[in-house]
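Running low. Invent one:
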Amino acid sequence: MDNKDTISVLNDLIETSKDGEKGFRECAEDLKNPQLKTTMTQRAQDCATAAAELQQLVRTLGGDPETSTSVAADMHRRWVDLKSMITGKDDEAILNECERGEDVALKSYRKAMEKDLPMEVRSVVERQLQGVQRNHDQVKALRDAERARS
């Protein structure tokens, strides 16, 4: 895999991380439970840190790092906002949408791991994939706990 292809994969993951950061921040804003707000704010920060790490890798490879979220994620957030206005924003529904976003992130990272990435890039992507999996599992557990309370 040449540098150009590696940079493209990394830029896709930067977009994914930026999507996660924005999605978690919006979830934190809408959640009523203060503990959930704190958890989602921390997940947003984790995504921002991951994006910054990937951006540095792109610079090291001589590329121009992505700086924005994806159009698909922006459209999804607008759909969630519209749906929320109609159905109300309860914590379980917000966590459902948060988990859906993490499903997309997992898919993006797994797809990147199928590529023939240089070893130093692969190790970063693999470590971040594990973080995305932890985020997903935590959001799912929080959603299930919220569902049990309802």
